[in-house]
Amino acid sequence: MQCLIAWPDCPKPGRKLHQKDFLLSTRSMASKTPVGFVGLGNMGSPMAKNLLKNGYPVIATDVFPESCKELQDIGAQVVDTPGEVAEKADRILTMLPSSPNVIEVYTGPNGILKKVKKGTLLIDSSTIDPAVSREMAAAAEKMGAVFMDAPVSGGVGAASLAKLTFMVGGVEEEYNAAQELLTCMGANVVYCGPVGTGQAAKICNNMLLAIGMIGTAETMNLGIRLGLDPKLLAKILNMSSGRCWSSDTYNPAPGVMEGVPSANNYQGGFGTTLMAKDLGLAQNTATNTKTPIPLGSLAHQIFRVMCSRGYANKDFSSVFQFLREEEGQ
Amino acid sequence: MQCLIAWPDCPKPGRKLHQKDFLLSTRSMASKTPVGFVGLGNMGSPMAKNLLKNGYPVIATDVFPESCKELQDIGAQVVDTPGEVAEKADRILTMLPSSPNVIEVYTGPNGILKKVKKGTLLIDSSTIDPAVSREMAAAAEKMGAVFMDAPVSGGVGAASLAKLTFMVGGVEEEYNAAQELLTCMGANVVYCGPVGTGQAAKICNNMLLAIGMIGTAETMNLGIRLGLDPKLLAKILNMSSGRCWSSDTYNPAPGVMEGVPSANNYQGGFGTTLMAKDLGLAQNTATNTKTPIPLGSLAHQIFRVMCSRGYANKDFSSVFQFLREEEGQ
Amino acid sequence: MQCLIAWPDCPKPGRKLHQKDFLLSTRSMASKTPVGFVGLGNMGSPMAKNLLKNGYPVIATDVFPESCKELQDIGAQVVDTPGEVAEKADRILTMLPSSPNVIEVYTGPNGILKKVKKGTLLIDSSTIDPAVSREMAAAAEKMGAVFMDAPVSGGVGAASLAKLTFMVGGVEEEYNAAQELLTCMGANVVYCGPVGTGQAAKICNNMLLAIGMIGTAETMNLGIRLGLDPKLLAKILNMSSGRCWSSDTYNPAPGVMEGVPSANNYQGGFGTTLMAKDLGLAQNTATNTKTPIPLGSLAHQIFRVMCSRGYANKDFSSVFQFLREEEGQ
Amino acid sequence: MQCLIAWPDCPKPGRKLHQKDFLLSTRSMASKTPVGFVGLGNMGSPMAKNLLKNGYPVIATDVFPESCKELQDIGAQVVDTPGEVAEKADRILTMLPSSPNVIEVYTGPNGILKKVKKGTLLIDSSTIDPAVSREMAAAAEKMGAVFMDAPVSGGVGAASLAKLTFMVGGVEEEYNAAQELLTCMGANVVYCGPVGTGQAAKICNNMLLAIGMIGTAETMNLGIRLGLDPKLLAKILNMSSGRCWSSDTYNPAPGVMEGVPSANNYQGGFGTTLMAKDLGLAQNTATNTKTPIPLGSLAHQIFRVMCSRGYANKDFSSVFQFLREEEGQ
């Protein structure tokens, strides 16, 4: 089953792309109008490359000149500000680290909305608070533009291979236009509802993932201490009602599965810091909508403590190790 | 996939059994030695009937005379005490509500171990603390008998239909002998390891189930409040890393699935009280082995509060309702 | 010991104030420059009255005309917008329900900062996110004005009696000027540090209060179920290391103390909704500063669930009742 | 205020006691009947010495011969088994590590109850599950003896100085007889109610203490990260409703108070392991009485994780350090 989260053993992105890879596609550029791209980080850069590869002229910008240079070398036109991108393109993607960046890029003094043309399609793939997505959509609407949120699941590898999953929120009539671009960069594009629901879907999935992972870690640890063989316990859970993605696909107890972070000292995978960030969004969103999330909230606290106790850069399944009594104690 | 937990829409146990149902089997009784059965409650009674149906002479006892009478009417021999059962049978099953009952039935003044014959096979299907199972095994060993724990998954319906799942802990050499009897009463028999590991497996599964259920309820509720359609959200979770048994097989949000308790005002299914009892065992076991179970422990507290707030007899998926703001507030 | 939280049995605010009450003070008005006041709700209205009573001319505004009318009747000058207040007064207090209101009143199109005079002292007594206080302070500084946060402890009764406690954050040099006004409305004024620390102090205190209250409720309930007399248990805790404000001053178990909400079916006091709001601020603040607050976070979730289960308007010590098994179960 | 918990800076127990210290008291022994003492560990040994010092002949036993030797040297009569103690004394104190030891010493093959004389007063100062205390009381009653539970607060220092606090449960008519002995070893003796309530009081106090300590640690950490000075924050809390023993007497943030473990790298004081043990008793007791303790339960899990993460032997206030992000991260 296709899984929306970064998968550590997915095929490597392969050799570095060179300009010649884009020869064929640039030939067909004449028939495609340019696409703007703001935010050329670890995720944005391979996403923009996949647009180029699919024959779209790309007008790009980023605060780091090196990121721009790399994309320029393979055919993108680089400009100085998000506002200039908006002058030259009527379809724009943004991929930014967090809410304040999104607010700046859209509504700041050199922002997209200062120069946006009527009818422009704006797609934000950042993972942010859905309330900010809705604010941006309202601001865009005032300028006659359309804003959609389209956060992704899948890590850098999936971005390079155009295997991302996009969860899209926004006006349904514009979904087809968005889908045309997103399918160049992803394997799954799911329409979720009005603006903000793409973010909501991602936040919800990752919260339940976090709960399932800690729950599986606790359960595997308890079972082992009660004398059960870890592989047998996993097998029993997976044929029973305890089954979940963390038990059957990404088991956190070393020795149960191969090709997962727990088989590799919790290297790679989905870092505890990133999970803590997503749970922070879930927490804020729940607080602001007055929704009780007792387990989600405790999961957030646990990953937050782990970040302070040396697990920040390990895969989030290292919670198994965090909870486990050390050998010899 | 076969699921170990009581399933509310499973086929009804069918018509009441009468003596003639057992004619064929009683004819073959000559070739089978008697099996003892202590504890003829909601679960024990249909289990004992399935032994009779399979041709085993049954020597039974229970503290409630009515329960004995019913079994006597269809061919069982009824005696007064567990000790007497032990005098007449060298394979004995016990199915009792909780640890103190098990201790009494085995080691009490009229208990099995007062009269047990050397070599007797004792199988306890009660759900209790694995530490008590180990104590009983040690006490049995002193008398030259063999004790195994074999708690079940599946409710009264599964017991009647001989569709239970048994998780068996005990000496491996005796497993075949136990399996012969247990397959008369269940569809799955899983060997888990030394004495107590059957209990451990059941406790572990139900703890992870409880965590997954509350997590799913929180997630569905949060998503709905963020504007997602419940069916769509469930679909997204189930194709993603948030997937778990509670999201894809027993979804707690009304309107997402049919044939589950959430579609029927949380009637039937697996009661909150029973889940709270199993989580109490998980909690005690974890405390006594010094194992941290932060989410398991919080899940326990949540179901415990629910028992006090009017959800005791509803299906445990009613945690969705418990967490949800009431209409009109 | 003076306590910062609303105290249910504090002396009633007494008879309604009439214009003659202000005769003496208005006579001395000539020597005092006007003070602006924005937000004449349950708390703001008695606070503004105390300024009048102390001889300060008050320039007031509120979105509800009735609130303005009442204050006008006793001598305040009413204007239409926060901006107009800022034109007429160089010391302004604001008392608003939440962050968005504060942002609107300060930075909105008719906001204070649109018309503020250089050197104006702005004091915000709303309880909001300290990050918003810092934003307002930065925006005020650009206009040459000074912003301080000064949230209060104490309810409507304390506001009427000028017995509030103010926790003040802001530039230390301006503290004396702020203190002069705040002492007209409160019994304690505590300087906490730079802008935002007043909010921080209030949030911290209320988070620890919430934890102590739930902890006391759990402890009293457990002790009672273990056979202890509630009064005796409270006495033992209060002479021991379990002692806290919730055990010795505001005990949540009925029958232990008089004059507290638990003695009056949890009427009056500090509502569960308000506590949930303050814990939401603590939660957001902790999330945004990446600070783990496991118990604070769980306390938040518990009060949030209580709001949905019918305890919204009861005193927050009703958590004792929420956790308790009902009679007859 | 006298505090029931071990206090790290209490006066040292002073010079080692020698036989001559007991000369005066032994002279008066003729008029006092012997007292039995079982369990001469870190706590039991100084307690037994205080009985000797007060002129009571002591009949003692312990599984470790060295412990017996030390007491023998200063005048106690040493015997081999608890049963022999019961033959020679009609007032017996026991001070043992945990429930299984208590069960063995009272009901084992060489146990007290095998030889106890009618009318003997049995006082158990171990900290154990109150249900075990009740079982022992019932077993004693069958033999015509009286059992009381009298767990202590205060550590080894308080035991040496006869400054312990005893929380006593048992038949009220026997309380005076118990008090006569206990006042030789403690400064406070509190009657709590029927058998088991002494344990209940201790468990309840320590649970609330644990909650208050973690809550204080979270609050101090959050406040510091929000820019508050730790000493000022403590002062504000202590004059407000956040006040508790952990904030005003044993503050966990370094630099706030002197003479507490937080001022000494969390050395000394009350170890995390011991707190986790007491919370385990609270947890088991709550589970067995079906009492929800959400915060108590989470506090238990946090101290349990700390034990596995290197905090086992630090004072329990080191939870402040556990939750805090390390410098430089």
Outline of this structure?
Four copies of one chain form a homotetramer. Chain A is α/β, with parallel strands linked by helices.
Describe this protein with a few key phrases.
alpha/beta; 9 strands; NAD binding (chains A, B, C, D); six-stranded parallel β-sheet; 45% helix; mitochondrion (chains A, B, C, D); 3-hydroxyisobutyrate dehydrogenase activity (chains A, B, C, D); N-(1-d-carboxylethyl)-l-norvaline Dehydrogenase, domain 2; 12% strand; NADP binding (chains A, B, C, D)
Plain-language structure description:
- The structure is a homotetramer of 329-residue chains.
- Chain A is an alpha/beta fold and 329 residues long.
- The first copy, chain A, folds into two domains: 19-194, 3-Layer(aba) Sandwich (Rossmann fold); 201-323, N-(1-d-carboxylethyl)-l-norvaline Dehydrogenase, domain 2.
- Helix content of chain A is 45%, strand content 12%.
- Chain A contains 15 helices and nine strands.
- Chain A has helices at residues 23-27, 44-53, 65-73, 82-88, 99-107, 112-115, 130-142, 156-160, 175-182, 197-225, 230-238, 245-248, 272-288, 294-308, 319-323; strands at 35-38, 58-61, 77-78, 91-94, 121-124, 146-149, 152-153, 164-169, 186-193.
- In chain A, the strands form two sheets. Chain A has a six-stranded parallel sheet with strand order 3-2-1-4-5-6, sandwiched between helices. In chain A, strands 7-8-9 form a three-stranded mixed sheet.
- In chain A, helix 3 (65-73) links the parallel strand 2 (58-61) and strand 3.
- In chain A, helix 10 (197-225) packs across helix 13 (272-288) and helix 13 packs antiparallel against helix 14.
- The radius of gyration of chain A is 21 Å and the shape is elongated.
- The B-C interface holds B 298, 305, 307-309, 312, 322-326, 329 and C 298, 305, 307-309, 312, 322-326, 329.
